[in-house]
Design a protein that fits this description.
By secondary structure, the chain is of the alpha/beta class. It has one domain: Ribose 5-phosphate Isomerase B, Chain: A (3-Layer(aba) Sandwich), CATH 3.40.1400. It is built from 6 helices and 5 strands, in the order E-H-E-H-E-H-E-H-E-H-H. The protein has a 5-stranded parallel β-sheet with strand order 2-1-3-5-4, sandwiched between helices. Helix 4 links the parallel strand 4 and strand 5. Helix 1 crosses helix 5, helix 2 packs across helix 3 and helix 4 runs parallel beside helix 5. The N and C termini lie far apart (30 Å). It binds D-ribose.
């Protein structure tokens, strides 16, 4: 799967973990930065990742900031994006099955590498259930 990946300085450490996991799973990664720990503005990173997903150049996106809150708010400004901030496995699975989330947001200062790996694996494997859930997410556009 083609996956766009991005973080700010608050998510930089966890992004390295997530990048390694994605590579081990054989995914093709578009790394939108940041590429070091220097301070950057998370809305810029969210726009870069979400544009790749919205244009269909990547099927999914993963965004990481300190808490995951700011970068998920920024991502959901794009009407093509359904970004889900997840800190545990159940929400990660449900964000795919019920919400067809196309962007996963994580907090680099709120979860550890093991938890992040579990969330990422589950989120990538889970499939959208469709049906009544499709009708509900279609209502976002109304
Ligand atoms: C950056 O210090 C921090 O504000 C950012 O990573 C994020 O947590 C915002 O929601």
């Amino acid at each position: 799967m083609k996956i766009a990946l991005g973080c700010d300085h608050g998510g930089f450490g966890l992004k390295e973990t997530v990048l390694t996991v994605l590579q081990q799973l054989g995914h093709e990664i578009r790394d939108c930065g940041t590429l070091d720990g220097q301070a950057v503005d998370y809305p810029d990173i969210a726009v870069a990742v979400c544009e790749l997903v919205a244009k269909g150049e990547c099927e999914r996106g993963i965004l990481i900031c300190g808490t995951g809150i700011g970068i998920s708010m920024a991502a959901n400004r794009n009407p093509a994006i359904r970004a889900a901030l997840c800190a545990e496995a159940f929400s990660a699975r449900m964000s795919r099955e019920h919400n067809d989330a196309n962007v996963l947001c994580l907090g680099g200062r709120t979860i550890g590498p093991g938890q992040a790996e579990e969330i990422v694996r589950i989120w990538l494997d889970a499939e959208f259930a469709g049906g009544r859930h499709l009708r509900r997410i279609q209502m976002f556009q109304q």
